[in-house]
Amino acid sequence: MSAGRLLVNSGTFAAVTAHGDVHGTRGTATDGLFVRDARHLSRWLLTAGGAAPVPLTLLTSSGDGCVLTPAGTRDRPPAYTVFRRQAVAEGALTEHLRLVSNSGEPTVVELELHVDADFADQFELRADHRAYGKTGARRTAHDTPDGVAFHYRRGETWSSRTTVTAAPPPHRTRPADGEGDGDGDGDEGGTARVLTWRFALPAHGTADLRLTALAVPHGTREPSPPGSPDTVRKRLEADTGEFVGARPRPRDLTPWEELARACEQGLADLARLRVPTSGPGGEALRVPAAGVPWFLGLFGRDSLLTSLFALPYRPALAADTLLALAAVQGTRNDPARLEQPGRIVHEVRHGELAHFRQVPYGRYYGSVDATPLFLVLLEAHAAATGDPGLAARLEPQARAAVEWMFRDGGLGGNGYLRYTSDAAGGGLVNQNWKDSADAIRFSDGARAEGALAVCEVQGYAYDALVRTARLARTVWDDPRWAGRLEEAAADLRDRFRRDFWMPEHAFPALALDGEDRRVDTLASDAGHLLWSGVLAPEEELAVGRRLLRPDFFSGFGIRTLAAGQVPYHPLSYHLGSIWPHDNAVIVLGLARSGLAEQARTVAHGLVRAAAGHGWRLPEVMAGYGRDEHPDPVPYPHSSSPQAWAAATPLALLTALREPRGASGVPRR
């Protein structure tokens, strides 16, 4: 989505134009009001005097408002001005229109609001040209005394609605031109309505119009009325301010002003990206969603790494993430969604297509790394907080996760954590963090095939075994199991260095393919191995220094793929772009390995990039270097705000404050 503004709050977001409208677009510029993976407003167009008003100012990112007028000239200035304010709350959009007469004579103002709700699933709206059948689906619209109610039903098992109310009520409600038959009901494609008001403004007088759209996704209750945009904004600002201003405050921990500003922006974004969910006992939680617009929900890998980055500063994120993931940990074998006992979920969706299993992502387990990262975060939380209570509570889930790594993950029998493509099931081809279909390639450009063992995942597994052994000794009182885990970790470390290390490059292979051939591409994944501690000290130094050479380091960050190789493409998703979170893991690893100068160099590049994006790091940037363009070049489909990018400055702060052991992993 590339709408003018994104308004985000409590798992709800609105993508609107710079002056607050919604046109019902699709593809990369999709707009609307979205709740639980569905679009609950697909049209929200304001006209004044029969025409779109002219914006004098544009909507701010917080929804504080914009200023609109009808068209005018120098000699005939606009007779009135519309001050428009919007905000989103959980399940709701609220809007306040204040009309101000600019004239010394009475003025009549006619406002119209074109509204519709198509209830489209997010997967329908993405620009991948897929179509999904919806047998038995029906949309209707019903006029109400103070607005309109939109309903969507599909068969007997799915229903959603959106209600639009206005104060004062509209003077007239009619079907949009060419849609519906005027009887108050519409069928597919005919539900759009036009609400009309006539305001008689006295000389220099004012009038107010308040609008509320309440979304009720399938299986949920109608949300409470949110109040005015000002009320919502004040609540949101208080909630965000409490999160950002809590101690420790990054500004108190570094003299580097630019890094402090990036940290504060990151914390503000993380506050608004928190979404409500529940834990194993039904307790209410707030976890960092992956990002907007497409990923406003619980994602295993994203939420875990985000929480790890933020752990020294906001440990509650880690606790809620661990509990939320424990609540949806795999319990059975379900090949349709890759569920296996003990496996940590990749993503959780609530939309219609997931409900009817037309996409596998309702509760999808296609992630090879979320399970070891769950174990890493569990031990890191206990170490950082000094409180083993959560680790004690989640011992059964931790044991199940370890069992999955050895049984189904592939680690048993001197193996590695591996995955195979789920494309045939409609899922992911690649199931590591570089999850685009073409991400794992040989240096000649050929795609790696078969059961893939990607390098960084083996590092995560090693770290998970070491950390879980520590919990077994210190929290669970099981030294025998701890010893077995330590032996398995040592064996994995020895095998990894034998099978992945490429002496001709002094660098590890990106992966082993299904025939155990080394995928010889030079990729940023190797930097994650510095963080996990699976390499020998001399190997860490070689890798860390190699990552700072110009083909990897652009001046803004380390590319996902070193330039000059056949697969390299600076505008690809994972074959040459620059990901802040990827760099954050690498910087933590550089610091842990004693490469403080290299860590500072990359951190300065990322902070420079943050400054070029208003202190908000995007999900991903194009791979062009400073020698090609003085400012970071945006990646065209980047999510922003995005959780692990928002948490990246916090990871940089940790690495620069604690040059050794910054990741929580001692040198081994």
UniProtKB/TrEMBL annotation:
Highest taxon in the source lineage: Bacteria
Biased composition (Acidic residues): 178-188
UniProt domain Putative glycogen debranching enzyme N-terminal: residue ranges: 8-211
Transmembrane segments: none
A Pfam family recorded for this sequence: GDE_N_bis
Spans annotated as Disordered: 159-191
Domain Mannosylglycerate hydrolase MGH1-like glycoside hydrolase positions: 450-610
Protein name per the record: Glycogen debranching N-terminal domain-containing protein
